[in-house]
């Protein structure tokens, strides 16, 4: 297990869930709270305090942990908390083997925006990293409470009124009776086809769109779209809060949940062909992916 000697001061960590399928519910073993200051696409306009944060496959976060309250000799563990949920874990071995070789594990807990993640695949408690408090030190860092006006970060919140179009994406599962009877993962009823463009974005009709992501399967899916960063508008109609206020390119969508995201395409840099897909590798390879083209 990795370990890091730390001083009694604040540390900023960039955390990336690079697992192929697993979701982590990250927390500190002593239950201490920390500050979330950034998401996939950059800094939050103000820090969000949390005692844990859920990261689906492909999601990122920047967190600030304060070891100041500890004394030299203490040890603190970064853990992924145990959680229970969907019985779908038992079905993972039956996923279409076109590109699938066994099952992954994803998970849940509670988002730092307060959204429950019940109904997700079982996850066991894991020790991720140990922090050894090795040195007493003064901390002269004051964490920002709001980004300064001259910060080179786009803190603008897009609104529904900014969008010229809404597109709907339904993520679901079905049995593939043509290829051995395994599980197939689909978006809008279709598996991925390299020779098919699923969505065409015509910038002449507007550069800002809302994408509505509906999860009709019993498993959570981290939806990832290439090309730009997005903002979460709402989850099941509830306005975005907490870490959902940051720029995102990967959004974890719970079973039965609809998440609306909004993004603005830049005509100078975004023209071309891109993909959207579930960021769980096994689901993506089993067909949960599509093409979109920006003209």
UniProtKB/TrEMBL annotation:
GO molecular function (one): copper ion binding
InterPro entries: Cu-oxidase_2nd, Cu-oxidase_C, Cu-oxidase_fam, Cu_oxidase_CS, Cu_oxidase_Cu_BS, Cupredoxin
Positions of the Plastocyanin-like domain: 9-74, 178-292
Entry-linked CDD domains: CuRO_3_CueO_FtsP
Top-level taxonomic group: Bacteria
Keywords from the UniProt entry: Metal-binding, Oxidoreductase
Name of this chain's protein: Multicopper oxidase family protein
Organism the protein comes from: endosymbiont of Tevnia jerichonana (vent Tica)
Protein encoded by which gene: sufI
């Amino acid at each position: 297990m990795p370990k890091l000697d730390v001083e009694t001061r604040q540390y900023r960590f960039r955390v990336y869930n690079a697992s192929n399928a697993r979701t982590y519910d990250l927390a500190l073993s002593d239950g201490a709270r920390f500050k979330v200051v950034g998401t996939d696409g950059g800094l939050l306009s103000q820090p969000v305090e949390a005692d844990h944060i859920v990261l689906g496959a492909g999601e990122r976060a920047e967190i600030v942990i304060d070891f100041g309250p500890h004394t030299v000799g203490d040890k603190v563990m970064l853990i992924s908390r145990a959680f229970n949920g969907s019985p779908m874990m038992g079905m993972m071995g039956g996923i279409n083997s076109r590109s699938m070789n066994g099952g992954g594990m994803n998970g849940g807990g509670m988002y730092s925006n307060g959204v429950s993640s019940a109904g997700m695949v079982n996850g066991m408690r894991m020790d991720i990293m140990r922090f050894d408090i090795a040195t007493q030190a003064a901390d002269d860092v004051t964490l920002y409470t709001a980004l300064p006006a001259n910060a080179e970060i786009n803190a603008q919140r897009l609104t529904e009124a900014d969008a010229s179009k809404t597109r709907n994406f339904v993520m679901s599962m079905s049995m593939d009776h043509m290829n051995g009877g395994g599980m197939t993962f689909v978006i809008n009823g279709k598996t991925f086809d390299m020779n098919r463009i699923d969505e065409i974005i015509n910038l002449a009709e507007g550069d800002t769109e809302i994408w509505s992501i509906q999860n009709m399967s019993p498993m959570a899916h981290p939806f990832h779209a290439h090309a730009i960063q997005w903002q979460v508008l709402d989850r099941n109609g509830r306005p975005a809060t907490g870490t959902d206020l940051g720029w995102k390119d990967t959004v974890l969508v719970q079973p039965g949940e609809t998440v609306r995201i909004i993004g603005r395409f830049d005509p100078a840099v975004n023209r071309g062909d891109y993909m959207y897909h579930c960021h769980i590798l096994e689901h993506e390879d089993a067909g949960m992916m599509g093409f979109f083209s920006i003209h």
